[in-house]
Structure formats: C-alpha cells, structure tokens
Prior knowledge:
- The protein has one domain (15-282): TIM Barrel (Alpha-Beta Barrel).
- Helices cover 43% and strands 15% of the residues.
- It is built from 10 helices and 8 strands.
- It has helices at residues 28-41, 60-74, 89-102, 131-141, 162-174, 188-200, 217-226, 233-240, 245-265, 280-286, and strands at residues 17-22, 48-51, 78-83, 106-110, 146-151, 179-184, 207-211, 270-274.
- The chain has an 8-stranded parallel barrel, surrounded by 4 helices.
- Strand 6, helix 6 (188-200) and strand 7 form a beta-alpha-beta unit.
- Helix 8 (233-240) runs antiparallel to helix 9 and helix 9 crosses helix 10.
- One of its GO terms (cellular component) is cytosol.
- Its EC number is 1.5.1.54.
Amino acid sequence: xxxxxxxxxxxxxxxxxxxxxxxxxxxxxxxxxxxxxxxxxxxxxxxxxxxxxxxxxxxxxxxxxxxxxxxxxxxxxxxxxxxxxxxxxxxxxxxxxxxxxxxxxxxxxxxxxxxxxxxxxxxxxxxxxxxxxxxxxxxxxxxxxxxxxxxxxxxxxxxxxxxxxxxxxxxxxxxxxxxxxxxxxxxxxxxxxxxxxxxxxxxxxxxxxxxxxxxxxxxxxxxxxxxxxxxxxxxxxxxxxxxxxxxxxxxxxxxxxxxxxxxxxxxxxxxxxxxxxxxxxxxxxxxxxxxxxx
Length: 294
C-alpha cells in the first residue's frame, strides 16, 4: 500500500485541512450520484475522504468499493470507518487486511453504537470491547494505516460524565491514534471547551472539529438527539421561522459557514464535514472562504 501522506502530516500546514465524510449508497444510482458529488467537492481541495458503514457491520463491502472508487477519482488518501460491533478480532483483522489491499490509507477506529433495536453495546465473543483496543490492534498489526478516533465535545451519550469521557479519549490517543475527529456540534463554544480540556489532560494530537450543515430542521433534530448535540436557540428559531425548505437550507448553510469562519480564525488544524453524500451545502458554505488558520 502506498500512502500519499501520513494522517498526522495532513495537519502540519498553516492551512486548515478539509476532509469529507461519505456513507455507502444502497443502489448503483446512489453510487453514481456520490461520485459526481465527490468530483464537485474536489474544488475545495480536500485532503482525504472517509466512508462509514451500516450499523452492526452491514455494508462493509460496499464501503470498501466506495473508497476504491473515490480513490480512483480523486487520487487522494481515503479512510474507512471500523467498529468493534459484531466482529471477532479475526474478522477485524480480515477487514483491515482487505482494506490495505485495495488502498485504504486511514482507519476511523470506533467502538460503534449498539445495533438497531438494542440499547447497550454487547461484546462479540472473540471480539473487542473498547475503541482503544481496536486502536492497539491496528497500531500493532497494521502499522502503515493512519488512525483517527472520535471525540465528543458535548460528552458521549453513554458516558457517566465529561471527565470520564475525556479519560476514555486519552486512552484511545495513548493507544496510538494520530488525530481526534469530533462528533458534530452547532455551538463552537462547546468545541473550544472540549479542546481546552483535551490540552489539560495531555492530549497533544490534532483535534479536528466535525461539522454537519443543517439543511432540514426535522432531520437535524433527529441526528442531534441521537448524538446528544444541542441546537442553539438562535438557530432553532431561525429554522422554524423559515418560510420554506429552501429558506431552511439557506439558514442552516449560513450557520455552518459562520461556524467555519470562527473555527478557522481560532486556529483549528482542519475541519471534517459530514456531507451526507451531497455537495450542495458544502459547496455553498465553503465558496469563497479562505481556509488559512490565523
């Protein structure tokens, strides 16, 4: 496997490194549309693309197919999400081996959410319990792969408290993670508090904020409730007072644009955009912006 750049080196520039997250489409038409949107997103100079997979490990194969296509189109590094859910260590190793074979450069290492219909994470027999164990596996057996882990500015929904969640994050970083990508948030102050707290406990890797533009308020509330992200009252009021769907789109994109400007002005090393396989919102909010950190 030839890695175009290490994951750590992506964030060593004075520019704010942009990356985009995709998910595996369910149809061939969806794949075709995704590829068109990827081509459109290339105008903003992303450093890499990531791709999730379905709950419980479904669509893993499609994830690798998508990443292979994206790499062919963009010639950029690509990252696969990988969770502990429903997999033995041998199955995780088999996936990592195949990911390396087809040219995946980085892994977003996650414990993973409980499968649909359940409320608690259950360890698969012969599997792993925590994300730090997955990081240790990758770092020990697949050292060429860059590793990103997840951070939660507003605390993981299953964590006892913020400090416990932060301790768990440091455990993942100490196990060998290159960067932290945060869960989505809509108030930058939440991110800055989180970043400061990370620094205080000795987390020294790049902390990359994750942004999801609000383009549909009903969908935004559902996603935010799933990941325990608060929607500011000002944004909620503006969205609910919008005249129509297009006006909601405009309000949400402008909020994400202002988030981006503020984050760049406050020296973030990069921003990871959750684009939901679309390009319109990202194109609107990034158009004309200077992404050089101050």
